[in-house]
Each structure stands twice: as C-alpha cells, then as structure tokens.
Amino acid sequence: MLSFSTNLANELRDRHSSAYWYIKLYYGDESNFTGLSDQDRLLSAVKYRGLVLDWGSIIHSVDLPSFTASTLAMNGLRISNADDKIAGGRFSDLFNTQNYVNRKFTLHMGAVGVAVGDHVQIAQGIITDQMTQDFDSLTLALIEDLSNVAIEVPTNRVDSATYTNAPDNNIGKPIPMAFGDFALRDDIGSIPTSGAEFDRYFVKGYFPAIITNQWDDADANVVATPDAVALESLSTKRVYYHGDDAYSPCEDGNVTVTTATPEITFEGTVWRAYFTLQEWNTYSALWADYEDSIDNDFDTYQTYTVDGGTHEMTTGYRIGTTPKLGEASKVSLMLTASNYGGTAPGGGSPALTYPFQITAGSDYELTWTTINQTVDITAEFSTANKDEWDFRKHFLIEIDDTSNQNDDQTVRFLNVGIEVEFAPSQSFIKEWTSSRFVNRYDGWQVVRHEIITRGVIETPEVSEYIYYSGKGREYGAWVDADSRNNGYNSGDLIENPVYMIEDILRTEVGLGSSDIDYASFDTVGNTTNGTIGNTFNQSVADIEFAFSQYRFSDAWTLCKEIGSACGCILFLSGNGTIKILSRERDEDYTSADKTIGYDELKNIKPGITSLADVRNKVSVRYNMNYALDTLTNTTAIVEDSTSQESGVNGIGGATDKVQELVIDNRFTLDSATAVGYSTALLDWLAYRKKMLSFDVLSAKHNALEIGDTIKFSDWPSTFKIYGNTITATDIYMVTKIQKYPNGCSISCQEVSEVTD
To answer: I want to staple 656 with a disulfide (CB 3.0 to 4.6 A). Which of 379, 414, 473, 652 is the partner?
Structure first.
C-alpha cells in the first residue's frame, strides 16, 4: 500500500469529496516542471494552473497465474488548450517549445484542509509522444517509467580492449552473473575431501566461466572469468571442461582461482573422470543383500562381516562400459569406509595388521585405519584397455582374518568407484618460450646472461566456456544500510531469490535505496518471518536458488522471471520505487491490508476464475545443465484428486478431468526448493477462485495497489458468489485498480483458503 499520513487518511475518511489531484509535468533537463490541476491552486508557493478538464484514470493490473504486472498507465488526461491560458498562449504552444516528451511526471493527491506535507504521490512515469489535440483541448498519454531498469544484463562483457587475447567468438559476449551455492552437495552426508577425493565429483552444479584469455603467454595457461564481481568461494579441485556429455575436473595442481577478481586459470593434460562401481550379480547369493549398497550417498553404507579365524570374500563389484574421453594414463580405485571394528584377543581394537583388500587379478591391500583411500590399479589394464577405455573388470572386496582372532571383523563401505586420469582427445597445443636474465661473474667482470626456456603445453580445446563449481555472489554493503534488519550481512552468500533481484537492481542496474522499496523486500525475504517462507512452506533459510546468467537479458524481464519463480509480484509503485510482494499459500492469509464495508461498494460484479486456469496436476523441471542448455531434473508429480473429480469443488464429470502443468524453474538446483514451488502452484491453481469487481465512491482507498489484500465487513448473507457466502475472514487480493480523484474501481481475487 501507499503510505497515507494520518491527517490525509482521516480527511479522506470523513470528507469523501475533499480529495483533489495535481500533476507535475517536467521538461528540458527535468530541473523544472509545469504544475497543473483541475482548478488554480497555490501549494507551497508553487502555482498549479487549473487547466485539467478531465483526469481520466490510473490503471494498474496483475495476472496472478504468471505473477506479471502490467504497465501502469494514466489515460485520458485532457488539458484545456484555450488561448492565453498559460505563458501567454495555448498549452500546445508551451508543450512544443518546452519539450515535455519522454520527460518525467509525478501525480499527487491532496485534500482540502490537509497541509502539502501530508499529501502523497500516487503515480510516477514519463510523458509519451501519444498526444491528441483539437482546438479546445489536448490529451496526453502517460505511462510508468521503467527505462532505468530496461537495460541489458549482464552489463559487463568481453571487449577486445580489455581482453586482448579472448577468442574471437567470445568478443561481445556477457561475463556471467553467478548466484547461490552450486558447490558440494549437502544432501548425501559428509563428502570426503582427502585420501579419496570424492569432492571433485559430488557437486550441486557446474556454472559457466567465459574464456577471456585463450592463451596467456606469460603464465602458460588459459584464463576464464566466472563473474565480474567477487564470489563467495572457488576451488582449484572443481574446475571442469565438458566433453562427451561429461564434466571432467582438472588436476588441481594446474589450476589457480581468485574469488575477489574473480578469475580461473588452468592448463595441462591431466583431467579426471569418476565411475561408481556396481555390484556384480554373478555372485547371486550376495546380490539380494548388497544390490543397494553403493548409492552415492555418504550417509548410507553396506556392512560386511567375517567370522573370526576365517578368510572370506564378501562381495564383488564391477564397472561397465565407459565413454572414451581421451587418452587414459592412470586408473585408481577410490573407496570410503566407516565404523569398521571387532575385538582383538584380550580386548581392545583389532590389530593394524588385519587388512581388508581389493582383488582385481592382483591383491591391493588397503590400510585398516584409513577411512578414505585411493589405490593405483593401472597395472590391471593393458595399453589396449586404456586406449579403448575398456575398464570392464570385476573387483572382489575381502576381509582377511586368517590370524585366528576370536571375534568378527567388520567393514562398512559407503562408496566405491574408479577414477581415470586422462588427456582430452581434443587438445589445444601451444609452444612457449620464456626468458630471464641473470648476472654472472665472468672472469674479471659481471656479465648479464639471458636464459631461454622452451616447451610445449597442452590443454583442452575450449573455445567459449570452462565450467566450475563454487559459491556465487555475496551481499553488498546495501543489505546492512538504511537500518535494515533482515538477518543477512554484507559478505554473506546470496541464496535468497528476493535479494538476488535486489542485487541485480543495485549491482547491475545501478539503482539506490531511493529507487527501491527495500522495506517490502525485507518483508518478503527476511530470514525470521519473510513471507516467501509461506510461499514455499519452508524456512526461508532452506529456500535455495542458484543460477548463472550467461546470456543477455533485459534486466526488468530477468527480475520478473526470478520473481515469478518464487511466487512474487514485482512492480513500480505509485511512489516511484520498485516494490515486491509475495503470493502466500491460501491458509497463510489471516489478515488484510484494508477492510472495506459492504455499504461502500457500488456496481458489484461477482465472478469466478476460468476453468481453463485450473491446474490440478503439477511438476517442476529444474537443475540447469549449462553445457547442454537443458533442465535435467523433474519433481515428482503432485496432484489434487478432489479437483479432478465430479464433486462440488471438482472440474470432472463422469471421468476425472486432469489439467496438468509442467513448469520450468531454471533458477534452482535444489530438489526441496523445486518441490516447494510445485506444491505452491498446486495450492494456487487446483481450484477456481471467487472474484469481485466493484466501485468505491471515495478516495480513501486510493492507497491500495496491486497485490494488496482486502476483506469485507457487513456483507449480507443472502448475497452469495456462485453459491458461496463472503465472510469476514475471506481475504481477496487486488488484481486491478483504476483510480480517480474521488474514488476507484477494483477487481480482486480470493486468495484465502477455500472453506465453502
């Protein structure tokens, strides 16, 4: 809602006909304006000419299913064009000489007996060139001004002056914007980072970094840029190139990263691939027990036990066909185990000499006390095997307890796989020469000698992007400014979509606190009770958005897309600031911004949302694969059977009627967030909703804007909408409002829980 002062609100409540409008039409460099009203007014020593013959109306609306607000428009502003009324002539003469087109306007509302300091701005925008004129009058068309957010983002791009050695096809492309956590997965337990370095492979996502230096002669590497502003974290172990539908990490000794710049450099021929081993069903007696043991979850395990005094093979694994990614040089077995144990004679832990081992033609003894291990098994494979990437071999896990101990020996395996080191099949080969000078004592004098070093470096043929896993942008100082208290601090990782929007508006577009209704952003997004938590039916901290914007987009369009993906309406408020509101679940609406009495309503027109808008079966596609430009995961379908059936709240007849929605959300990698979004969509769309349109012959409700909520008092029980009563607890959301100086017309839709 717009903020009306107490004095203005009281005056509008008590004297319905006392409201008036006045407008400021700016011209030239917008340092001056022409003031107009419906009669001559002197306000704070500024004269407003009474030339307005008809104000027309202000119209603003929102489409709830898509969360898209229309452009606010002021249509029908008709101004007197009589001779000698302003500046010694007609207004059209002044309009031509002062050049008002494409300049700002602000519209204000006052009331008789209310000081100017208590007046309120109710619209702001630009004066269009859509003008009609006759001998007596001139009519202007005014719209909201979004020119400052209708810019192309990312705003930073690869230019040939800054990046002199960038690939030709990258010149002019955007430097990506990276948001959220796309580093290690946090839903599969603690991922080993040493010994067996599974952390190279079990990540949330792979984001693009654009190549900005195809080959750095000075440092003998390739340079890629993941963003133009500082990132939360990067890792040398998680830089990848994409080939044959696989993301392959680079040897971390050949990678450097900096988060502040940010920058990634890489080179070399050592890249890696990981393949999970699967149980070998030749061992049929064991298959039923162990078929789910290796599930790539580090919280789950399979327990293998041998009796004391025995030497027993417990199970077998194998690897199937693998893609050929390049020239294989080394094959290692990676294994992580936990909670192994037993009791040695006389008590205590088992002696360190009790091994468990891998048998793959030869025995590879593993250290009993080391949880995470990598073992070189390259010798198991011939040159032909490596050339063809034929690693089809079975592995037998054994526990050796032949030392006649008196208790069982146990090992729990969490993950077992093989890692292949290789040189990519398509490589960029660069000969390089470097020199340095040293001073040497040559007999009787110091002589300056040049030392020349030459070599050949290979690295994958990457022409546009390399990929990485890390954490994206951090909150700027703006999150702590203006006495804000939203639970976030400068330097924290931005995962909340509400503040991703604000960061784009500030960091990319360049808006400041005077341009953004940051209080509304904090109402929706704060960590304690942000209303976005009701949208997803989750704690705000658990709503995780993560995406890379690596293609150009209109900034306002991008912000609205993010808003739609989290159930938020983004629009330019009448006070000239960008505001955000969230669409909560039906059951979360227990109070409203305004209460309107039934006796205030005129021309009531009941309605109900279209049958075509109903969606009673919903799933969400998410988790963007940026190399393939496709969404890779889909949530389980959620549906509402009552809506599908023939009952009072159903849309089916003799058979169930299913109207399905499969929607894309490219802004999250997180399954719980995607599921929360899918259930929210079902909550909003499974049933037809009551609608009301009406007029209010008073300006006291002109503070309302789209997305605001209202409820009604004193509604007669005999007046029903399609058989449903309207109670004092029913909450409606404003979907369209048309304002006049002394009243408004409102269309609204029920958003509270269906109880009838």
So the answer is: 652
In terms of Cα–Cα distance, which of 125, 123, 135 is closest to 58?
123
> 352: how many CB neighbours lie within 10 A of its CB?
9
pLDDT value for 344: 37
249-256 long-range contacts, CB within 8 A, separation 24+: 249/200, 249/201, 251/421, 254/221, 256/221
Cα dihedral 107, 141, 128, 140 in deg (nearest 10): -90
Q: Which two tokens stand for residue 281?
A: 């069903």
Domains 275-420 and 591-609+689-756 share a fold: no
CA distance 359 to 224: 42
Q: In this structure, what DSSP letter does residue 195 have?
A: S
Q: For the chain, list residues with pLDDT below 50.
A: 281-292, 313, 342-356, 428-430, 432, 434-435, 454-457, 756
Spell out the residues 6+ positions from residue 57 whose beta carbon is closer than 8 angstroms to its own: 74, 75, 76, 738, 739, 740
CA pair distance 32, 29, nearest whole angstrom: 8
The b/e string for 11-28 (b: 16+ C-beta within 10 A; e otherwise) is bbeebbeebbbbbbbbbe
DSSP H/E element including 313:
strand 311-318
Q: What is the DSSP letter of 380?
A: G
Q: Please state whether beta strands 263-266 and 255-258 pair in parallel, antiparallel, or not at all (unpaired).
A: antiparallel
pLDDT of residue 245: 86
Residue extents of the structural domains in the chain: 6-143, 152-273+460-471, 275-420, 591-609+689-756, 611-685
End-to-end CA distance of the chain: 29
- pLDDT at res. 247: 94
- Burial degree of 549 (CB within 10 A; 0-12, 13-18, 19+): buried
Nearest by Cα to 11 from 748, 744, 749, 742: 742
pTM: 0.90
State residue 722's pLDDT score: 81
Name the amino acid, one letter, at 654.
A
d(CA 689, CA 607): 9
Q: Encode 131-144: b = buried (16+ Cβ within 10 Å), e = exposed.
A: eeeeeebbbbbbbb
Looking up tokens 């021929």 gives 269
CATH code assigned to 275-420 = 2.60.120
